[in-house]
Specification:
Layout (H helix, E strand, L loop, with lengths): L26 E2 L2 E2 L5 E4 L18 E4 L5 E4 L6 E3 L8 E5 L2 E7 L2 H11 L4 E5 L7
Antiparallel strand pairs: 1-2, 3-9, 4-5, 5-6, 7-8, 8-9
InterPro entries: MOCOS_middle (IPR005303)
Protein name: MOSC domain-containing protein
Amino acid sequence: MGNPSLHSIHVHPLKAARGFAPDEAVVEPWGLAGDRRWVLVDGSGKVITQRPHPRMALAAAGLLPGGGLLLSASGRTPLTVPVPEPTGTVTVEIWRDKVEGVPADAAAHAWFSDYLGIPVRLVDLEDPADPP
């Protein structure tokens, strides 16, 4: 048996969206830095996935310094999303787990709602010790 090796690694800042392959990645106690720290949720707070919404796989989310996102998708104007101020939280349901998150601004909600054709909210998960 040969030595284990790693040929590439991918970070997905937004769960269910296309990620990117960084030149290097920082491993934190809860996983890769910046990986799956953002999610889309429906009106009841449940996480949106690719299974019922395959267009999610075509949307890209790049990680900005400080933890914000750069969203892009074919035919859409890219959108920069800053880390939201923690003025209030929402409960996010990821499978059977519930975690708290901070909603992004209205422009981010509108960008993804229009892209997917359903009302959604973009949420930054607060505590990286509770990964999705």
